[in-house]
Amino acid sequence: MITESAQKIFEIHIEELSSWGHRVHKHNFFEIVYVEEGEGFQCINQHEFAYRAGNIFLLPPLDCHSFKINTLSRFYFIRFTDHYFLKNDGLTNYKAWFDRIAYILANYNKVPGDIIASERERNYIIQNIKAIHQEYLLSDNYSEDIISGAVASILNILARSIEKKYVEQANEVDNRFGEVLRYINTNITDSNKLRIPVLAEKFNISKSYFSEYFKKQAGVSLADHILKSKLRIVETKLLHTDLSLKEIAYQLNFTDSSHLARSFKKVYGMTTKEFKNSGQVCCA
Q1: b/e per residue, 75-94, with b = 16+ CB within 10 A?
Q2: b/e code 34-71 from CB counts within 10 Å (16+ = b)
């Protein structure tokens, strides 16, 4: 197994393949894959998903993947590193974009494979991917800003699609619970908004019953859910940023880095350093 590295902080290319000649590999960049033609299977971290023309996938860094191609396939690959979100051009808040990506990755494992919610959104993303490719080839003084805007649009739609499926799954149990989870995830760094009296009033549930209600729907207590939701974001920031543990703890409202370190080890059974250095199991 190899780890593939992007040569630039952003690149896009098209490949037409009848077989997958690459080894199973990880990479150190984000990748959006659009399948324009063909069908087969994509293997991601030991799980196989059928692909066909029109599918769109998001592959986070350190996911291990390969393709099993059944018919001649044409792929668009958009690759960008975490540094793409750290630019300071005065036009886009790239830190906010990385926080959005952290939310996507923290919940992506709940809804693997193609996650586009509607054909309208799918067509919009496809148009943006093709526009990005044309601008990438043109590469004039305006292209970088145009590409940044198009990537931002794609990520917004992906975030909305992931959240929508996540909420719909929760609503299958109780028609309010998906909205409860959406609110908690949206305000995960604001402890005041996650207090039981605030949540109970917002969702018209008795304060004395809210804890029982939440545990009945989620299978875990509210405090455990909030902690584990924060730690999933910690995972993303450990793997995909150069932030110190102290900075991550501050962003997510842990008391300090020691509090975060203890919480992480208690839940994951390893230190944050061990987690950052650990590999992920690949598909064969």
Answers
A1: bbebbbbbbbbebeeeebeb
A2: bbbebebebbbeeeeeebeeebbbbbbbbbbbbbebee
Spatial strand order in the sheet of 39-44 = 2-4, 25-27, 65-69, 39-44, 47-52
The secondary element (H helix, E strand) that includes residue 12 is strand 10-17
The structural domains of the chain, with segments of one domain joined by +, span 2-170, 174-274
- The rounded percent of the chain whose pLDDT value lies above 70 is 79
Question: Do you know the residue count of the chain?
Answer: 284
Class of domain 2-170: mainly beta
pLDDT of residue 54 exceeding 90: yes
Nearest in space to 9 (alpha carbons), one of 142, 131, 98, 125 = 98
Give the integer Cα–Cα distance in Å for 239 and 224: 22
The Cα diameter of the chain in Å comes to: 61
pLDDT digits (tens, 9 = 90+) for 189-212: 888 999 999 999 999 999 999 999
Q: 174-274, which class in CATH?
A: mainly alpha
Residue 5: the pLDDT is 44
